[in-house]
Amino acid sequence: MTATLSFLERVQQIAEALLEAERTEPVAPPRPPADMARHIAVGPLDDDDTAGRTGLTCMAGVAPGRAGLPIEDVLDALERVALATPRTGTRRFFNQLFSGRIEAAAAGEMVASLLNTSMYTYKVAGPHALIETALTQHMARHIGYAEDQGEGVFSPGGSLANLAAMIVARNQAVPDARERGLDGRRLTMYGSADCHYSITKNAGIIGLGRQNLRKVECDQRGRMKPEALEAMIVADRKAGAVPVAVIATAGTTVLGAFDPIEPIADVAGRQKVWLHVDGALGGTTLLSRRLRHLVAGSARADSWTWDAHKLMGVPLSSSVVLVRERGLLEKHFSEAAAYLFHNAETELDHGVRSIQCGRRNDALKLWASWKHFGDEGYAQRVEHLFDLAQHMAEGIERRSSLVLTCRPESVNVCFEVRGKASEGVCEALRVEQLAMVGHAEVGGRRIIRAACVNADMTFDDIDAFLDAVEDVAPHAPDGDNAL
């Protein structure tokens, strides 16, 4: 690197190289771990250091060495790492529930990294504490919470946002649980059979026990059955359990289904249990007049999870946990720390409401993006995503080689290729660098799940993806349980 080439200029070069690679090669070449280790290695490396090694045994040249390296070498390695990383920003990435790139949000992320502040106190966070408050209040209004209701805090992902809500629900039901633990009491919570795996994981973390996260039967569209939920709560209470909370899902991970919040809220009210909505995927539908019927009854929930890094397209991670009753987050998460919290007024000291102490700034990128699009722009984007999914479903139905699993509930489209193993089709697409897409199980069958979450995609992109599926299908292995 020449003396006149600044650090930021070199980083800009890396970004430009990545953008060009995304344009010319939307799917990065797949590499086995040992080959990847050699490709990104920095510093001296013997010819046989990674030969024949796989997994965690091929880290020579990847792990830091005893001696440091020039910044030029490290930045060169960063460029190799960037270009070798699976490309989530392109129109051929259907693999997870995040994709795409928004310039304003990416700029916010980069600025937040340069600022490197923490969000626990106003003293350290400054304007970013105001930004986080403004965003969580704005989201609370969209949920339908009144002006004197609703508070929230950013969380590193929907799983931890769900965890925070489940802790609050547990403590509200058993007021001495935070101090004394459960004392042998059997608490139960309820989620649909298709709820996110973090709900089960969190039940183990907070002391309920995973078996006490009760899975409620779903209908054929993947939505929780309210009558089955109430019957299960009544039976558990008669058996001596203490029902604590119901977790409804607004946008399940595979089918993208929306549990019916209104009748579930009726059940929660009658049974006097907390209602949490895991809207990590589907929360953004609150911004659309056309789609918000999917979350009718949203304001009746006691708490919400909403991931902005999914349908709002900001960089990972940007998640929020919100509660209707103000003061509950501080009540259940605050701890005395005289070395940190110096203000009597804690309204802008968000650390008192968070599971975390040090916490990165995940609000600025969302703020920049939301300021850019506004509510109306985001409504148009999420509606476009739903239209993409419908277009894909219609395209699948027109192609005799493809079979639609079910009509899409939201942005996820599930289907199979006749006679072929779904996982084999997905791998063939990746190996041939045509697309990245995942597979999952629905009704005992292994299906392809295509997530339409990149709002830069067009109908032509969807058609090109389906063309690619048909192109690789003849080379994919036959399925054991193929249609």
Mind explaining what this structure looks like?
This protein has about 475 residues and is of the alpha/beta class. The protein has three domains: about 5-85, no CATH class; about 90-115 and about 365-483, Aspartate Aminotransferase, domain 1, CATH 3.90.1150; about 120-360, Aspartate Aminotransferase, domain 2, CATH 3.40.640. It is built from 15 helices and twelve strands. It has helices spanning about 5-25, 35-40, 70-85, 105-115, 120-125, 125-145, 160-175, 175-180, 195-205, 225-240, 260-270, 330-335, 365-400, 420-430, 460-470; strands spanning about 95, 150-155, 185-190, 215, 240-250, 275-280, 305, 320-325, 400-405, 410-415, 435-440, 445-450. The strands form two sheets. It has a seven-stranded mixed β-sheet, with helices on both faces. The chain has a five-stranded mixed β-sheet with strand order 1-11-12-10-9. α1 (about 5-25) runs parallel beside α3 (about 70-85), α4 packs antiparallel against α13 and α10 (about 225-240) runs parallel beside α11 (about 260-270). Mean pLDDT is about 95; it is low at about 45-50.
How far apart lie the N and C ends?
A: 57 Å
Listing every helix as H and every strand as E from the N terminus to the C terminus, the arrangement reads HHHEHHHEHHEHEHEHEEEHHEEHEEH
- Computed structural class: alpha/beta
**Rough outline:** globular
Q: Average the pLDDT over all residues and give the rounded result.
A: 94
CATH architecture of the largest domain: 3-Layer(aba) Sandwich
CATH C-level category of the largest domain? Alpha Beta
Widest sheet: strand order? 2-8-7-6-5-3-4
What's the CATH topology name of the largest domain? Answer: Aspartate Aminotransferase, domain 2
CATH evolutionary superfamily of the largest domain: Type I PLP-dependent aspartate aminotransferase-like (Major domain)
Which consecutive residue ranges, at least 5 long each, have pLDDT under 50? 46-51
Major sheet summary line: 7 strands, mixed
Estimate what percentage of residues fall within beta strands: 5-15%
How many β strands by DSSP? 12
